[in-house]
Amino acid sequence: MSSSSRTDKSYFKKRRKYGIPFDYIDYQPKRRRCQIPRPLNEDEPGYSRRKALREQYYPVKKSKLKTTVSSDLLLDVLQCLNRNEALKCQLVSKQFHSAIAPVRPYLSLHILDELAIHYNGEIYAAGRERSVHLKSKHSIASLRYCLINTLQIDSLSKRIFEKLKMIKNLTYAKLKVNEFRSCQTFTITT
Amino acid sequence: MATESANGVSSPELNERDVVITTNDNRNFTVKIGVARVSKTINNMIQDLGESLDLSSGIPLPNVDGPIFEKVLEWCEEHKNAPEIKVEQDPHTRERKWFTMTEWEEEYFRKFLSHLWDLAMAANYLEIPSLYYYTCQKLAERIKGRTPEQIREMFGIEDDLTEEEKAEIRRTNVWCTY
Q1: Is residue B131 within 8 Å of residue B72, measured between CB atoms?
Q2: Where do the SKP1 component POZ domain residues begin and end (chain B) (predicted)?
C-alpha cells in the first residue's frame, strides 16, 4: 500500500474493523500545534468536559522514586544492556523517558542480521527478532544505531545507487556493516 | 582541640590515622585515612587541605546521608588496597563488558538491594569507580529481561506516561521489541 493511501481515513477504518494492526513504522502522523491546557472549571471559557472526565478518571500519577536519577547515571546503567533492553526503559516513567532520550546516541547498537536492497529500491531489514520493510525516512535514519552483519544488494542500478545515497545521507555516513554481498560483480569504477 | 598536620607525616603513617567525616544528617564517622582515601573526593580534600586539615573536627559530606555512608564505608574497607578497575566495552556493539564479582561483592549487593540507586549516587559523588560501576551493573542486572511494568514495581515508580506518549515512544524505537 502506498504511503499516500495511508492518510486516507478508510485505511484506518478498515484496519480497525478487521482488527489488523497499523503499520506504525511507516505511518507518520501530521505535526500538531502545541496544545494549550484547557481549564477544568466549568465556568471558565474553553472548558472541556471530555478533558475534565479524563482527569477525574485517569489522574496523572506522580513518580514515587524519591531520588531524581540523573542522565549520566542512567546512561552508565543502560550501557551494560543491549539497545533493546535499554530503550525499553523509556516506557517506565516520564523521568526515565526524559533521562534516556538525550543519551540515546551513546547507547549500545542494535544488531541486524541482514539489510537487503532489492532491484526495485525497496529496503528490507532482518533483525534477530523480526524483519521490517523500511519505507519512511525515520526508519532508514534509525539504521545509524544498528550494526549490520550483512548488506546485500541485487545489482547496482540507478535506483539502488540513489537508495544507498539516501541511506548514507540519513545515517550521516555512519552505517556499520560487517559483510557486503552482491549478486553482481563490481569493478572499481562502479 | 589538637590539630594534626596531614602534610607533616609520610603517607603510610597518615593512612593509619583517623579522620572524622560528617554526613549531611550530622552523623560523625571516625575512619582510617587509608580507608577514606578509596574515595577520590575525600582523597582530594585531604590533599588540598594539606597542613590546615583538622583531623578531629571532620570532613563534611553534604551530599551523603549517614545510613548510605555506612554502606559505602563497608565497601571502602574491603577495597582499600584493590587495584583500579578497568571499564571495557565491546568495540562493535559498544555494550559494556560485565565485571566478575567476588562472593563478598555479591553478598554486599544482596544485602543492600533496595538501596542501589542511592549507593550509585553516593559512589558517583564520592568518586569510587569500583562501587559506582559495580552498582550500575547490578542495577542493569535487575532491569535485564523485565518488562516496564515489572521495573516500575521493582523500583516503586508510578506510571505517569499517557497512552499517547507510550505509543509515540514505541513508534520512535523502530527496532525495539517490547
Answers
A1: yes
A2: 19-81
